[in-house]
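Researcher: Let's run the pair from yesterday's discussion. Sequence first, then tokens, for each.
Model: Starting with the first of the pair.
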Amino acid sequence: MLKDVTSEGFTFYTNLGSRKASELSENQKVSLHFPWHPLERQVIVYGTAERVSNTQVMKYFLSRPQREPISCLGLLSKAGPYSTRQALMQKFAEIKHKFEHGEVPLPSFWGGFLIRPQQIEFWQGGEHRLHDRFMYKKSESGWQIERLCP
């Protein structure tokens, strides 16, 4: 659910009561993996996660279409888990109806994380397993590039 990429890093938003957010509060070291298997390419980002400001969360939340179902899904995840798909769909209908004629408020448990990259590996598959792999490592003077073994 990556929502933004800037010179600072990679941003996503989530339920702060989720397992993912709980694990990030205990261990800020993370990796992101972006595979493109049909192209034999992948990118792996190694970095640290930090919470983004409430102002940034609100700005993102307000940029989304008002009736976008995901607006309600944040509320759904707070009310779960659900024993059946039917129970999930029923709760979704209730929440959608509740906000049918008004704004969906920013849930208090909704937040975001910025992943600040320290290393980024680019991998391109190669014939005979002679892959091209490059590791970009962040340093005070910029990004250092190292060719890795296949």
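Model: Moving on to the second of the pair.
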Amino acid sequence: MELLNGFIDIFSFTTLFLIGGGVFVGIIFGAIPGLSAFTALALFLPITFGMQPINGISFLIAIYVGGLSGGLISAILLGIPGTPSSIATCFDGYPMTKRGEGGKALGIAILFSFLGGIFGAIILTFLGPVIAGFALKFGPYEYFAVILFALTTVSGLSSGNIVKGLISCLFGISLSFVGIDTLSSYTRYTFGIDNLAAGFNLIPLLIGVFAVSQIIEESTVKSKGLEQPIVTPTKGFGISFKEVLGQMKNFISASIIGLVIGILPGIGGNASNLMAYTYCKKRSKTPEKFGTGFIDGLIASETANNATIGGALIILLTLGIPGDNATSMILAGFQIHGLTPGPLLFETNGELLYALFAAFIFANVCMLILEKLGLPVFTKILKVPTAFLLPIVIAFCYVGAFSANNRVFDITVMVAFGIVGFIMKYFKFPLAPLVVGFILSPLLEENIRRSLMRTEGSFMPIMKSPIAALFLLAALMMVVLSIKSELKAKE
């Protein structure tokens, strides 16, 4: 009954307009490399001050939904992830574009982004408080084990060479050590450069490794005289109902991975799309097709990406814990209106929460409609000559890198990592493990150090935690299976 009342509450012109507008804003920010849902939320948070709580918070949730989904546009069309959550979308989306199937790739990604978001919304509505209660059992031991599992899993994205995957991951981890240590406040590996005291920022690093390296590569390809891909028009979403049913195993697996990772604070969509992609690749009967323009990989990435939103909102709305930077902005939106999300809010203002659940569902519908209507516009980007397109993209990259901290130094970082990314691609080192290692390393270090402080330096109590032991065993199995598959491929 409360859910029905929630839907009724959002069906006013003002609320629906704000939800649609929020999704549109989010898509634009998500599609531009370097900008993100967090950037959009930070910019638009102040204007929610004068709104009614249901309108203001619904608007913020809509921006979040649009921002995470919008990254697929540049990932598929340009091979440049608009956000960290769309890194894995590049792996198969961009090869499809180069084959002339950009419209089909966009349609499939949009559809499964929507389905992943709806899956997260359903779980949020009916099982949110139960799942959030289980997540409370995770302490430093469990977080360390989960993050280690994530790192070993993503290192398997190295296309037949786990050694290169692990080296790339370790390189990313080493980069995260630069700057002030959060636990001891000591400055590490800055070599006397004051600008490195805060460490490398994720946004310029991400833009450099993926966008600038891609631009350098595209520039060299263009010099060889390659033509722009011909985009063939597609009907509907470029996938039949029968094919959708055939993807249900991948969809369910990726949805669950995205949901679970979203619930765990600090990890979020940055890792869930890569973990879902890796899992679906490992269990596929044709793993060699992944990375060549295979729709299974595209579906895994985008499904997990948007299912993560449901998980992040579960932990925020039921326990008041922000799972990532974006949900911290939504939490600020609650505080602006004098509300504190958590178990008590269900009792004191349950109708508002169910209205927000309804707003989340409607935001996913708006995302589907707006991106579907935008398909003809998106595909026309490919008709722009490379000589005109690349300068525009690099200009957005400069803006995105600078806007991270308003520092010119971050532009230098972006260019430097662009060269690093190009060299790594030339020697066939995977880029994804580097970025994920950089993202997750601070959490890994913080939780292992806290664990060892509790146990006075002993690893045995960590192993006695059932959840931690399970994930550590899974991490070991992932390494063994990756080595086994490589040896089998060489026979």
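Researcher: Give me one sentence on the second I can quote.
Model: The radius of gyration is 22 Å.
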